[in-house]
Amino acid sequence: MPRARSAGEILADAACTVDPALRQAARHLAPPIRRLTDYHLGWTDAQGRPATLTGKALRPALVLLACQAVGGRAAQALPAAVAAELVHNASLLHDDVIDNDQLRRHRPTVQALFGTSAAILAGDALFFLAVQTLAQAPAPLCGTGLQWLTAAVQELIDGEYADTTLEQRTEPASLSEAAAMAAAKTGSLIAVSCALGALAGGADARRTAHLRQFGAHLGQCFQLADDILGIWGDPAVTGKPRLADLQARKKSLPVAAALSAANEPARELAALYATSGPLSSDELERAAHLIKAAGGRDWAVGQSRHHLAQALENLHAAHPEQVAEADLTTLARLAADRTH
Amino acid sequence: MPRARSAGEILADAACTVDPALRQAARHLAPPIRRLTDYHLGWTDAQGRPATLTGKALRPALVLLACQAVGGRAAQALPAAVAAELVHNASLLHDDVIDNDQLRRHRPTVQALFGTSAAILAGDALFFLAVQTLAQAPAPLCGTGLQWLTAAVQELIDGEYADTTLEQRTEPASLSEAAAMAAAKTGSLIAVSCALGALAGGADARRTAHLRQFGAHLGQCFQLADDILGIWGDPAVTGKPRLADLQARKKSLPVAAALSAANEPARELAALYATSGPLSSDELERAAHLIKAAGGRDWAVGQSRHHLAQALENLHAAHPEQVAEADLTTLARLAADRTH
Question: Can you give the CATH number for the domain in which A134 is found?
């Protein structure tokens, strides 16, 4: 039996597979817009010179592996892998405008470098490039696949919007609202990535549903990790500033869990979140401490363990091919392990 | 022979036909996002109470009439009419963010009322609803039709982006650059509306191409009118503030024409456009006067007459059914007549 691959090897392999197809798709964009999307995708630097900064390729890896898990060849799922990566990047472009984020992957965001209009239009272009990629793929990707992807994007948009409205609300968000928001914002695209892979590989409805559930739970692990790293992560590793979520009074999962606790740190945190105007760096550190003291961090780590177990149970129920199962298990553990 | 219908009757009829299908499509959106899109579409007021403000329905009218022009029934083209209107409204939502516009159709824009994030996400939702509408339509709309529409949207995005970059440039845009920008920004969606109608009606490639060209020229008339009304129109009629385009130093078609003239008003206009910071209301009125004195307004009116003639020539070459031809001619004249 071959040695199990590391998460890094799996993601690098997926990036290598999907990169030429992604670049091929991007050639359909007009040069002015492409200058923005090439930069965003890490292919060029701010001056337009070639660069080789690639994203994590988690969604393409899931598409390709889900296809192989049901006995398909990775090539069958390639258009879906490209489309999922394009949608993900389009949503990041709009997200950075919405959150006014200045840094992503250790570099200025498109909106920081080229302005808000550029980031909105580059996002629109990548969204439509994703649609074009699937619309031109063979059946069933061009039909059922496109319908699944567009439905997932609508969920993603709902989740993004819930995120922005929750942060404006003064009363605490319920934990279930925050979890539903995370499921829609992050889980929907990761879940549909797995479903599209299974669809491309010719899986029946039952196996496809299990792989979609696998993705949904993995997505929850991923969002929990993102939320935890946003509070306690090292910016040198994450490439994003720490505590920006708290500054925006986001009701991320650990925060929502902390606020829902009936203890003194929860009450102090609620009072801090209820103030208006920017929080000082001392107040931000205090908030991070209070979230932990109120039990928000432990809750998030526990939730991540729960979703990892659910993900692996669904993976098993999909009766996956052995090699793909090992890789998908590794990716699920990676998503969960980032949190502890 | 029946009395020819007025443009108002034609547009009202198209709005009545497309409205139930548009509302049916909107039901697929989640309530929080729908609150935004219902307001934008004129179905509710700022408090969410029912309202009956409808848009011009120009694009749906063109889709339905192009279908009838080639012998099809309007019902065959309905999903394309809905998709074209959704794309148009999605692009308006993003446009208002990009231009920081506060008023549209005599009411505050979504971004003015609900914020930038809401307007970006509502636009994303309508873009994808358009894709979903066509993806679920019968062939050939779900295949070829979707590919045409998505290609037109990419052109529209290119045109929008050219618009924002042209206004930031200090050297004058060439007239051909400004015309290409207008063709992409406004012409592409109007042209594809006609092409989709013809496609739904079962037209051959030649008739479809002529109807697409008809739409492209009508789109140029429409953009010329928009540019002229933005400088010399009555806000009580247009529903938008006057001179906002000049304040943003937009290189709209009359401005680009004026700047390319070799006369004294052109030089004074160029100097005014080259200043930084907001223009006073006296300076804005002076700019409007200079554009006219440099010949920008006459040029735009002449161009509109030229594109109207080209539109009608292409319409004729498509051998349209008589009633639809009369209506399409009326709409082309409406688009052109708004300018003089």
Answer: 1.10.600.10
